[in-house]
Amino acid sequence: MSNEIAILGAGMHPWGKWGHNFVQYGVAAAREALDDAGIPWKDVSFVSGGATVRCGYPGYVAGATFAQALGWQGAEVNTSYAACASGSQALAAARNKILAGGCDVALVVGADTTPKGFLAPAGGYRPEDPDWVRFYLGITNPTYFALYARRRMDLYGDTLEDFAAVKVKNALVGSKNPRARYKKCFTAEDVAASAIVADPLRLMDICATSDGGAALIVSSVEYAERIGKGDAPRVAAISTVTPTFASGVVEMPDIATDSAAAAGIDAISYRSQLPLKAYEEAGIGPEDVDLAEVYDLSTALELDWIEDLQLAPRGEAAAMLRAGDTTVGGRTPVNASGGLACFGEAVPAQALAQVCELTWQLRGQCGERQVEGARVGITANQGLFGHGSSVIVKR
Amino acid sequence: MSNKPSAPAIEGWFTLDEQPHLIGTRCNACGTYYFPKQDQFCRNPGCDSTEFSEVKLSRTGTLWSYTNACYKPPAPFVAAEPFEPYAIAAVQLEAEQMVVLGQVVEGTGVEALKVGMPMELVLEPLHETDDDVKITWKWQPMSATASEEG
After folding, report:
1. What is the C-alpha separation between A311 and A204, in angstroms, rounded?
2. Is residue B123 part of a domain?
3. In the predicted model, what is the mean pLDDT of chain A?
4. Signal sequence span per UniProt (chain A) (predicted)?
5. pLDDT, tens digit, for every residue of B100-121?
6. CA A206/CA A145 separation, integer angstroms
7. B7 vs A: CB within 8 A
8. Which of A242, A382, B58, B89 is at a distance of 20 to 30 A from A84, taking alpha carbons?
9. Structure confidence at residue A118 (pLDDT)
């Protein structure tokens, strides 16, 4: 396929609450990716950074920040901000540059240092800011995850035990991932004993925020073949589509959905739209997927994503989970990395971390959490402001 | 309870009568509703209207989903001391084909709620300031007041 690029290297700084400057994580991830690719830094001619708004000015100009930290060598730079999809958008920029013939080898990198506790909006009286409005009315991020989770329970019969089983499943594989932040093998009893945050979700159903950095070295397929890496995993599709009006699911930070009252307008779920372009671009279907890395901001949300990716019919993800089909060793393992449950979220790095995991899985380098014979993987994530992404990696 | 006068927590977002309504807008060309109000551009991709009318939204709907807040949210939320958990509802309005969030009235917990149940809009205090009691819209199960309203 003409629109594919090769993934020559992947690297991550372990996730945690390290409290260092985010640039440090990005540099560590980039150097690991360069080593993994066997490519000297001076051969990289494009640096595409995933931006972070909370690390100040260096975060807003991520591409240049990382390029300078690694040592100016004249590479062109790009910075992408797309909330949770920042990494995918940075990857898409690198792909476009490569496919347009503008460079052979690109570094894609994202890193974040997160503050402790709730992410709160600026103060004052600012009703024009939806983020201010919802916090003023007492609606936090877990509110939205809990609304989706409760709907699963009342509509599909999902149970608290199902949600706990997602955590237990992810904790088990995360315990075998050296880059994960949380490596403890939690039990269903541990989840049930944790405090309720937003009914029906407990503390252990909801992901934390973390520091971390992830990087990829990508190149044209011709370049990969030239250096004897023609069999490297390839990015087969990147979807960064925005929602289609009218978005029928109430999304953070909004207080209301779009109205679907106008003639010819239907309420549409954004999450289910995201993978469609990816499948189409890669020329494959959900039946071809060997494993998926999805954005489990909550345990219940992992089940939504399984259905959004069409790995299970709507309402049947919990049955798939109960059958063990989403576990490593099962039919279609989901979050073999341990997912956000074991990493916590480092926004501009997270979408890239998902692609790193697929890269290592497709190369068969994941040890005890290896998905045997994996050849096609898909990622999915969604963040604020109509940003989301789905990336397909295949071998 | 306080003897302070009451004032809307957010000015112009809801009516202050006995049977309160959220105040939104509706596109004069395509009929799309907006809450909060939108009066500059229509977000329907098939419509380029810039003409809107202020409208009262339906004050009843069905429960799309619900949850609660067991931990005190950060500012600008103003929490009572000690913090009392409250339920939160997402209510689907039929005519408007939209879902609107809001707290659930005091004294109604998640155990009293079920997806699909009819809900109505009421006004209740959100917090007090030195000068007044800020009131906001909240959702209430309709069965709770069905007898009063007939």
Report:
1. 25
2. yes
3. 96
4. none
5. 999 999 999 999 999 999 999 9
6. 8
7. no
8. B89
9. 63
pLDDT band at B150 (very low <50, low <70, confident <90, very high): very low
Q: How big is chain B, counted in residues?
A: 150
Residue B41: which domain range?
Answer: 11-57
Q: For the sheet with A46-50, list strands across it.
A: A76-80, A46-50, A105-112, A211-220, A5-16, A234-239, A388-394, A376-382, A291-294
Tens of pLDDT along B40-73?
Answer: 999 999 999 999 999 999 999 999 999 999 999 9
Asked if B48 and B113 sit in the same domain, the reply is no
Q: What's the confidence (pLDDT) of residue A158?
A: 98
Task: Note the pTM of the prediction, 2 decimals.
Answer: 0.96
Q: Token pair for residue A220?
A: 């044209």
Max intra-chain CA distance, chain B: 50
pLDDT digits (tens, 9 = 90+) for A212-244: 999 999 999 999 999 999 999 999 999 999 999
The two tokens of residue A365 are 């380098």
Is residue A2 scored above 80 in pLDDT?
no
Tokens representing A172 are 């088990």
What pLDDT, in 10s, does the model give residues A165-192? 999 999 999 999 999 999 999 999 999 9
- Cβ burial A279-288 (10 Å sphere, 16+ → b, else e): bebbebeeee
Strand-pairing partners, residue B67, are B88
Q: Does B80 touch chain A (CB under 8 A)?
A: no
Looking at residue A339, its pLDDT comes to 98
Q: Is B86 on the interface with A (CB under 8 A)?
A: yes
Q: Both B86 and B135 in a single domain?
A: yes
Over residues B67-82, the pLDDT tens digits come to 999 999 999 999 989 9
Helix then strand then coil, % of chain B, to nearest 5: 5, 40, 50
Backbone angles phi, psi at A51, to 5 degrees: -85, 150
At a CB cut-off of 8 Å and minimum separation 6, what does A43 contact? A104, A105
Chain center to CA of A68? 26
**For residue B16, how many other CB atoms are within 10 A of its CB?**
11
Residue among A149, A154, A256 whose CB faces B100 most closely: A256
Q: Which two tokens stand for residue A234?
A: 């390839």
In terms of domains, do B66 and B41 share one? no
- B82 and B119 co-located in one domain: yes
Smallest CA–CA distance from B114 into chain A, residue: A154
Nearest CA of chain B to the CA of A237: how many Å? 26
- The answer to whether residues A361 and A374 touch, using CB atoms and an 8 Å cutoff, is yes
Does a structural domain hold residue B82?
A: yes
Degrees, nearest 5: CA angle A282-A50-A55: 160
Q: ipTM for the complex?
A: 0.95
Q: For residue B3, is it within any domain?
A: no
The closest of B60, B53, B34, B25 to B137, measured between CA atoms, is B60
DSSP 8-class letter at A345: B
